[in-house]
Amino acid sequence: MTTLKAPFIRRNYGRGHGYKDANGVKVPGVTTLLSKGLPKPALVNWAARTAAEYAVDNWDELSTAPISERLEQIRNAPNASKNAAALRGTKLHDAAQQLQEQGVVDVDPEQLPLVESYLKFCQDWDLRAEHVESTIYNVTYGYAGTLDLIATLRDGRRWLLDLKTSKGVYGDMALQQAAYRFAEFLDDDDTGHIRMPHVDAVGIVHVRADGADLVPLTAGKEEFRAFLYVAQVAATSDRLKELVHPPLTPEKIEVSA
């Protein structure tokens, strides 16, 4: 339970963003809570492998740079790789809509196959978007986030969807979507602040250069409860330093009579 006050507002800071409540108090985001509270050994292994591969592939170039610069480039290799491959959900959705309406789209050439794959998915599934890139928040449990899409598909159901261009679909994505599904409020430019709409199904649109798949997720009350456990772990990790106090000395100990 929290003492945060609605409404929660998303604030954009350059390439990043954050959330605050009506009193200006910082509110943790869903993805931040998951990254802090949920172990991801595969991600650690990926980062180490990516940094090592970068060092080997760029050995000659790195050898001419100062040592501190070499270290910085190798250390940043995983982030650079992730950023280069990423095409955020709302950008992907907007680009597909632009391509459909105007026949041209302003994206990097290597990202065009992703846009075309997603556009075909929208056409095949008769996707009708209701909310795109909407802020959601839960005052009771004190978190906020930004969902990619709520849309009705060909099957007649209203779906909560997240657009992913990653190599695969992973279980922690279900916890993220459960947090969105069980938010209390939604805010976007079209509707303003409203109660979180009911959705019939939850899934990932896994977009690749060779196509896009609709991958259903189990993201019910049990997964939401698991997310709240993860959020507690994340909150605890933020205050670990507060649990250690300065060393005591005999002079500072007060002896009671």
Q: What is the 3D shape? A: globular
- Counted beta strands: 10
Instruction: Please state how the strands of the largest beta sheet are arranged side by side.
Output: 8-7-4-5-6-9-10
The N- to C-terminal Cα distance equals 41 Å
Give the ordered list of helices and strands: EEEHHHHHHEEEHEEEEH
Rounded to an integer in angstroms, the radius of gyration calculated over CA atoms is 22 Å
Class by alpha and beta content? alpha+beta
Strand-residue proportion: 15-25%
Q: How helical, in percent, are the residues?
A: 40-55%
Biggest sheet layout: 7 strands, mixed
* Poorly predicted ranges: none
Rounded average pLDDT = 87
**Tally of separate helices:** 8
Kindly describe this structure.
The structure is a single chain. With 257 residues, the chain is α+β, with helices and mostly antiparallel strands. Helix content is 40%, strand content 24%. It contains eight helices and ten strands. The chain has helices at 30-37, 41-57, 59-63, 67-85, 89-102, 112-124, 172-181, 221-238, and strands at 9-13, 16-20, 26-27, 128-138, 143-152, 158-164, 185-188, 192-195, 201-208, 211-216. It has a seven-stranded mixed sheet, with helices on both faces. The chain has a three-stranded antiparallel sheet with strand order 1-2-3, with no helix packed on it. Strand 4 (128-138) and strand 5 (143-152) form a beta hairpin. The chain is globular, with a radius of gyration of 22 Å.
